[in-house]
Amino acid sequence: MKGFNKAVYEAVKRVPAGKVSTYGDIARAIGAPCCARQVGWALHVNPEQGVIPCHRIVFKDGSLASGFAFGGPEVQRAMLESEGVEVSADDKINLEKFRWEGD
Questions:
Q1: Nearest Cα residue to 22 out of 40, 7, 9, 6
Q2: What are 65-99's pLDDT values in tens digits?
Q3: Pick the catalytic residue: 36, 54, 65, 87?
Q4: Which domains does the chain have, with CATH numbers?
């Protein structure tokens, strides 16, 4: 596993159930603030689905990931709702209420 991806996975593991972070939040957390898109690529090849909670990562406007690698946005929505995260009818999350920006 490459160093960048490993750092992404470790940061994502810290996002608690019932909260979300953005791709940019994770990029900043690992010291690569301009690499939000690369965070997305790393999560697209998540080697430990179920261990690395990539479903908790959303776009900067709170939108679900349309290309969620593990079943699409419907699966991401269901996983988040099962953790108590409210998802609007237009597949967005209120980041003021559910955003986690670090420990």
A1: 40
A2: 877 667 888 899 999 999 999 999 999 999 999 99
A3: 54
A4: 3-98 (1.10.10.10)
